[in-house]
């Protein structure tokens, strides 16, 4: 399952002691080849963590052989010392892999961290755990790795897209700060397809653009968002580029929806379809304006189909539309028609977790879907009581 | 007090029955002259209510003699019928004032509404109440008017700036959807200064820009935000333009801070000072990015000085700064220095309602202050349980 479903990959996860809870907190994914082409997309937050800076840098040559991920600390805003910690982690992983007979250098090791910003990682614990992590690597270790990267996630997130003789696998962690600017959260994808390394970044970017980039749980962009894709080529099969993009997108979309379904404290998953927009960019802008409107999100928590709050959000955008042409439906009931009162709001039942909001701009033929969640007591509680 | 402190104004407020609670919900402010110069700034939300469209239109000639305001219904997204309701209200006010001996036409009557979006106003109740409203007008009726425009406000909001022989008065209602794009909420300002009508709009805009425009309670921009300024000239004194701007600004700032202090469900008033910015626009952008960050707002509710969430918000902006030069202080304790760990966070006590956050961008000599509130259980409750 997950990252170890495609051939040529092993993984492991264990407890290094970074989390006070004693839950697993360190994961490793190894690409056994024969190829090592890789790509990554990262947060566009200008305040980005040391591991993001490191991984971006080592990906310049388009290759990675291993990724180490820790929960229990973001290693963000930790200065030059934090960057040195990330560098040391990669060095130690390379040394441990070399000891185990793998030809891996530190610049072939990506690093991802998640947890509290502004705190140094306990490097002594990580150093002690790395040899164990390497010893535990297994071709069915994907589930253990997926578990070890959880923070406030309540379930581990894995996905696989199976094609004829090859596949794409993935794992993700999410929970809060879910408003990716370019990529999102921590995600590792693997494939045994033979990939054209010169195209791999564009293929990954195309997939994340319509999946993770369309999720906006709480409007907050993380300092650590990372999506890495490793290809082993172990299947020996070279799919058409569009087929590879399609499989990567399938896994990204499945993981993105798993992230929304498990977003911190949420009680509704809200699918916002903006249709008949003049451009895709307009549709995205309108969708995100609604997804980020706290009053709308509170209303959904209260099972209130408050379309006035939808319109007041749409009205803040620069999208092409006429206010008196806007239609809004909640769960199939068009309660706002031509910018005014439509069907009775009593016809809308919002008690299920899944809520569908459709906004018709009547301005063209483009569309986009944005996924978000409601704003609940539990969201406030989780983010007021715990430092994450 | 309030709008009736300056000479030449009377006001009244009463219960017309628009609110199920039976609390006062209809207010009238009358300018007795001799002058009737007026100015207004309105929401920049493209979905704007019928009364905003009406008031913007009748202000084209730079004059107003009366303003009628109702709570209990926003008259937004109500189509042509809603606009006709606003028009009828102005006609009825003019007729009632004429009956009482005042020479006022409907285009001299501004209209403001606040309450639930997407519901028609009960015009029968308003029509019945208007003659009583006119009969009740009094030169000390400012407090009754301020009370009648409250929605989820817990206290009425009035302010006065007294100068040598003239003054500026004002009243406001706020509570939620506090993120003005140009103006904010419902605010009526009065002055007995002799004002230059050609300058009045610019003077009002200058005042709102550094007061209401710097408030961002929940990132949600209303469809009904309106600030109206009426000048009677009854003092016979013509202050220097800069003195008039200063007095208007004083009242706007006082009302803006009263709005933040009473924002829905808030338990902290947060003053965000962004200093040493390359431009005022940069300082405002950075301040608002923090004010709109739900994770930061939850942390303050939990008395957690989570500077990592401040930096992650700052990092989403296009402002000029280097991430490794950012300093952040909470209540005077610099817990983030040079983009990394500063003083121990345990030194910060956030139990008082007033919280000060200072962000130093080290990029210039400009600054701005943004006021916001925390994100609490009560905010979610008020906006999930009640349609407003």
Automatic annotation (TrEMBL), chains A, B:
UniProt entry tagged with the keyword Amino-acid biosynthesis: yes
Chief localisation class: cytoplasm
Site (Involved in the stabilization of negative charge on the oxyanion by the formation of the oxyanion hole): 114-115
EC number: 2.3.1.35, 2.3.1.1
Alphabetical GO biological process terms: L-arginine biosynthetic process; ornithine biosynthetic process
Subcellular localization(s) per the UniProt record: Cytoplasm
Reactions mediated catalytically: L-glutamate + acetyl-CoA = N-acetyl-L-glutamate + CoA + H(+); N(2)-acetyl-L-ornithine + L-glutamate = N-acetyl-L-glutamate + L-ornithine
InterPro entries reported in the protein's UniProt record: Arg_biosynth_ArgJ, ArgJ-like_dom_sf, ArgJ_beta_C
Active site residues per record: 184
Alphabetical keyword list: Acyltransferase, Amino-acid biosynthesis, Arginine biosynthesis, Autocatalytic cleavage, Cytoplasm, Multifunctional enzyme, Transferase
Subunit structure: Heterotetramer of two alpha and two beta chains.
Role summary: Catalyzes two activities which are involved in the cyclic version of arginine biosynthesis: the synthesis of N-acetylglutamate from glutamate and acetyl-CoA as the acetyl donor, and of ornithine by transacetylation between N(2)-acetylornithine and glutamate.
Name used for this protein in its record: Arginine biosynthesis bifunctional protein ArgJ
Species the sequence originates in: Microlunatus phosphovorus (strain ATCC 700054 / DSM 10555 / JCM 9379 / NBRC 101784 / NCIMB 13414 / VKM Ac-1990 / NM-1)
Gene field: argJ
